[in-house]
Write a structure and sequence with these properties.
Layout (H helix, E strand, L loop, with lengths): L2 E6 H12 L13 H17 L3 E5 L7 H5 L12 H16 L4 E2 L6 H14 L3 E5 L13 E5 L8 E3 L1 H8 L6 H9 L14 H11 L2 H6 L6 H9 L1 H11 L11 H4 L6 H11 L2 H8 L50 E4 L3 H12 L3 E8 L9 E9 L2 E6 L4 H10 L1 H4 L5 E4 L2 H9 L9 E3 H8 L7 H9 L6 H5 L14 H28 L3 H21 L2 E2 L1 H26 L8 H11 L18 H7 L4 H20 L16 E3 L9 E3 L11 H4 L5 E2 L5 E8 L2 H10 L2 H8 L4 H10 L8 H15 L4 H8 L3 H14 L1 H17 L1 E3 L5 E3 L8 H37 L5 E6 L2 E7 L3 H13 L10 E6 L2 H4 L1
Parallel strand pairs: 1-2, 1-4, 2-3, 4-5, 7-10, 8-11, 11-12
Antiparallel strand pairs: 5-6, 8-9, 9-10, 13-16, 14-15, 17-21, 17-22, 18-19, 20-21
Helix pairs in contact: 1-2, 2-4, 4-13, 7-8, 7-11, 13-14, 18-23, 19-22, 20-22, 23-36, 24-27, 26-27, 29-35, 29-36, 31-32, 31-34, 32-33, 33-34, 35-36, 36-37
Length: about 950
């Protein structure tokens, strides 16, 4: 029997990494091999237990796909790959090659699409195909001969899913309807939006009734209330989501049966690799008892004994899950607790009075939606001592619910009582819908852990397991297994929800007690109490306020872009002499390199397809106008689909505004990020891109948009941290820093600096912050490497303090394992003493850059807190509505302009006292573009 196994490489690697990263497995020289070990065990399980005749591992590439081009927000919110995982990837590729298993990639297509296409082709050739992946969207591929192989979990073997299992799991009649459910439900991991208000359960129900997304939209008149409104308003978004969730089956790739035949492992490659990775137990299992690793004292690059030399290997087994530390033995069933249901008027009043005399308490809300601005409260839970908590249910009737919540209003609004929570911004926002303005000091366990260990996950469950040794009740346990009888929070019997909600409050209280001393030990208590926790109120207010969008402006701009795209399309066809799919990397490569012969040395992928990524095309743009047109075409397509057409779909139907969500605990540097929409990604570098900002307008005719932007803040912070006298002098004198740098580097007067010299100096100034090499500078400026090296040498010759700062930052990191900002925010650099030069170099660049980026992040956060306080104290009606990079945006009445300018200048300039002068540029206008 011919069995083809197609492994979803990156999905399996990520799964292994996060499964094993609770207790990192480190070699004697500091390499985290958890992901490598986990992937190896997965591979061995397939080879041993399933005995494939043919096999391949499929990976994505960095090149954009049609999904990215048509919908820029696709996967836009995925966090940057953890550094230690990125370091593991080359080892995993070596491992796969050592097993003589082919690796398949193709620019312009995701691994899902390649697997889907190969699976269908193999099926036609008589293969039984197994797609090994943890991803749910592969359900759409199954057939009589194509199966999903879900990786081993919780000590059980891998699970095989065929048509019956998929139909039962998704409650559908055809596997293709998996796509329809995903189109309605969306996918947070890939940033597929779906239709607001529709979760998994509702999506299944609607597809059962209407058959498809298109069928639902065509029959939306049969729906009622909010659901009808959402389906009609977000119909296009649902169709786009369905398209994004559809796995392509026509990738231009051949099924090379001979290349996929399972071969014998290459022992000569694998044995030294296993030895290098220190896979002692696993090595013996694969190669026999004769396999040994010669131990030697491991030293870091500075000659000192490595910090990790004493760490031994974790015993291994064929299942990934056996590598995990034992699951926490404590849970709600075997742990003493006192969780009290409070559901009578007398008891509710009594609880409110009890809370009123506490110096602090923890609270949590149970609700009907993850969107705090549209959710309803199902219940409130409270805790102020370990092991004891209270749960207050609220009915679905809004008047009755409001009455219950109002009993706690004075407690929540008491400024003397500290409120504790996990992701407490959500609860603050939700309570604001019930006319409750939470006040007083906050303690957010998610944010506390973000300061303690910024590079790891901060969810309550993982924190509880890690710090308390306690496994909380899962939400899936609460609402039942997926299926027709699955309920929602309002359906759950009161005893169960009481236990679940009370446990949340209890765990959060206990985590708060654990994290308080950890914040003190890491000297980040002040940063938490004075910056991160108070910022929660500011961000909640900004999210609640929202931003007004001019839909007519966007519609007009969309039509204009459509015409521009059509003109470009025809121009490209004329220059190419043939019509083709410009969005197809395969067809584009054939036109550019086979027909037009633009580059006789054009590089190809392993599958023989020409590479046509942006970096390739940008390098060719000077050779032919058609390449510049293609880059412009891609840019306009992306602009139209991702912003111009997408922004109106994000408007809240209740308020008519866009309410972005700010994330405090994502970027390890301390920078804020935002989602729905991602404000940081709104284009500003091109004239067309900047036009999007024209659609951001004030909410009233007598209002105006005000934009305040820090000027060259990272360079000023570098001057402050380095105390370089020449750079400090340039900023103090008010010189154009890039012109001043050019004058010093080239040894000329300021008025003699040419535009090209200023451009070179600017590239060096910013390149230094990010650790750019002479090679990198030569590439960015298009100059010989020797000339770039000379410029860098001349730069350091003039700015001795900056070179000293860089050396000291790296030295500090090597000695302490972290660097810190001016306000003591830490960035841990676990690879700073790695014996691997590439890995260590990456950590060293972070050692230089993280204090600069992090201090800039801290500065604008402090400014936001102080500005918001002044707005409230002076009872101004204007609002702070957006934070984007180093810029703050306000919607204010025209008569308050001078008040706001005074506050903003003062607070932004004085946020963190420094020797270097801080400059703030303020502009106003009838829209964001005009103001910036």
């Amino acid at each position: 029997m011919r069995k083809l196994f197609l492994l979803d490489g990156m999905a399996l690697i990520y799964r292994a990494y996060f499964a094993l990263n609770k207790v990192p497995r480190l070699t004697s020289y500091g390499l985290n091999t958890g992901a490598i070990m986990g992937f190896t065990n997965t591979l061995l399980e397939v080879l041993k237990n399933h005995q494939p005749s043919h096999i391949a591992v499929v990976f994505d590439t960095a090149a954009p796909t049609n999904r990215h081009i048509e919908f820029e927000a696709y996967k836009a919110h995925r966090q940057e790959m953890p550094e230690d995982l990125a370091t593991s990837i080359p080892y995993i590729f070596r491992l796969i090659e050592g097993f003589n298993i082919p690796i398949i990639t193709m620019d312009g297509y995701e691994a899902d699409d390649i697997i889907g296409t190969l699976a269908k082709k193999a099926e036609k050739e008589g293969f039984t195909v197994y797609c090994m992946t943890p991803d749910k969207d592969f359900g759409q591929l199954v057939s009589e001969s194509i199966f999903i192989l879900k990786p081993a979990r919780m000590g059980n073997g891998a699970e095989v899913l065929g048509v019956p299992e998929i139909l039962e799991k998704w409650e559908i009649t055809d596997v293709c309807q998996v796509i329809d459910i995903l189109g309605l439900w969306g996918d947070a991991v890939d940033n597929i939006p779906g239709i607001p208000g529709i979760g998994e359960k509702t999506a299944k129900k609607l597809i059962q009734e209407f058959g498809s997304v298109e069928g639902l939209i065509a029959n939306s008149g049969q729906l009622k209330g909010k659901q009808k409104e959402n389906v009609e308003n977000f119909a296009q978004q649902g169709l786009i989501s369905k398209k994004l969730a559809t796995i392509l089956l026509d990738v231009p790739i051949d099924l090379d049966e001979e290349a996929l035949v399972l071969d014998q492992p290459n022992k000569e490659l694998l044995e030294p690799l296993f030895a290098e990775l220190e896979f002692r137990t696993l090595g013996k299992r694969v190669f026999g008892d004769d396999f040994t690793i010669v131990d030697s004292p491991s030293k870091s690059s500075n000659g000192q004994m490595d910090l990790f030399a004493a760490i031994s290997e974790v015993p291994t087994d064929s299942s990934i899950e056996t590598l995990l530390p034992p699951s926490p033995s404590s849970n709600i069933l075997n742990t003493d607790h006192d969780y009290i249901l409070v559901d009578t008027p007398q008891e509710i009043e009594k609880l409110a009075k009890l809370l009123a005399i506490q110096p602090s308490f923890c609270f949590d809300t149970e609700s009907t939606s993850l969107d705090a601005l549209q959710a309803e409260i199902v219940g409130l839970s409270f805790a102020f001592e370990a092991g004891k908590a209270y749960y207050v249910p609220t009915p679905s009737d809004s008047v009755e619910a409001q009455a219950i919540v109002s009993i706690f209003k004075s407690v929540f609004e008491n400024p003397a009582i500290q409120k504790i929570g996990q992701n407490i911004k959500y609860d603050v926002l939700l309570l604001s819908r019930y006319n409750v303005s939470v006040r007083g000091p906050l303690f957010d366990t998610m944010l506390a852990h973000y300061l303690i260990d910024p590079d790891t996950r901060h969810g309550m469950d993982i924190l509880s397991e890690t710090y308390l040794g306690y496994s909380p009740v899962s939400i899936t346990e609460l609402i039942g297994a997926k299926g027709k009888n699955q309920g929602n929070m309002r359906d759950v019997e009161i005893e169960k929800i009481k236990e679940y909600a009370s446990e949340d409050a209890d765990i959060t209280w206990q985590l708060h007690e654990k994290f308080k001393p950890l914040l003190e030990n890491t000297f980040t208590s002040a940063l938490a109490e004075e910056v991160e926790f108070p910022l929660v109120y500011v961000l909640a207010e900004m999210e609640k306020t929202g931003v007004k969008i001019d839909i007519d402006t966007l519609r007009t701009f969309s039509k204009s872009l459509e015409l521009d795209i059509a003109v470009l399309e025809n121009t490209i066809y004329e220059k190419a002499g043939v019509k083709f799919n410009i969005a197809s990397p395969k067809q584009l490569g054939e036109v550019l390199f086979d027909k037009l012969h633009l580059d006789p040395k054009a590089k190809k992928t392993k599958t023989g397809q020409y590479k046509t990524g942006e970096d390739v095309l940008s390098a060719l743009a000077h050779k032919s106008d058609i390449v510049k047109d293609i880059l412009d075409f891609r840019q306009l397509q992306k602009l139209k689909s991702t912003y111009v057409d997408a922004l109106p779909t994000l408007i809240n139907p209740e308020t008519g505004l866009i309410h972005t969500s700010y994330n405090q605990a994502v970027a390890a540097t301390g920078r804020l990020s935002s989602t729905n929409p991602n404000l940081q990604n709104i284009p500003i570098r091109t004239e067309k891109g900047r036009e999007v900002r024209k659609a951001f307008i004030p909410r009233a005719d007598d209002h105006i948009i005000l934009s305040a932007d820090y000027s060259q803040i990272e360079l000023r912070i570098m001057a402050e941290l380095s105390q370089d006298e020449n750079m400090l002098d340039a900023f103090t004198q008010g010189h154009d820093i890039h012109r001043a740098t050019a004058a010093r580097v080239y040894g000329i007067n300021l008025d003699e600096v040419t535009s090209e010299q200023r451009r070179n100096a600017k590239a060096v100034n910013f390149g230094i912050i990010y650790g750019q090499s002479a090679f990198g500078l030569s590439q960015s400026l298009g100059i010989p490497r020797r000339e770039a090296a000379e410029i860098i040498d001349q730069y350091f010759g003039q700015y001795h303090g900056i070179r000293t700062y860089m050396s000291k930052a790296i030295e500090f990191a090597k000695e302490n394992g972290y660097v810190e900002t001016i306000l003591k925010r830490r960035r841990y650099l676990r690879d700073i003493n790695s014996a691997n030069m590439t890995v260590r170099g990456f950590a060293e660049r972070n050692a230089v850059n993280a204090p600069i980026q992090g201090s800039a992040a801290d500065m604008i956060k402090v400014a936001m807190i102080n500005i918001q306080k002044d707005i409230q104290d002076k009872k101004l009606s204007g609002k702070m509505i957006m934070q984007v990079h180093d810029e703050l945006v306000f919607d204010i009445p025209k008569h308050e302009i001078e008040d706001f300018k005074s506050i903003i200048f003062d607070r932004m300039k004085s946020a963190i006292p420094m020797r270097v002068p801080i400059e703030v540029e303020i502009g106003t206008g009838s829209n964001w573009l005009e103001a910036h």
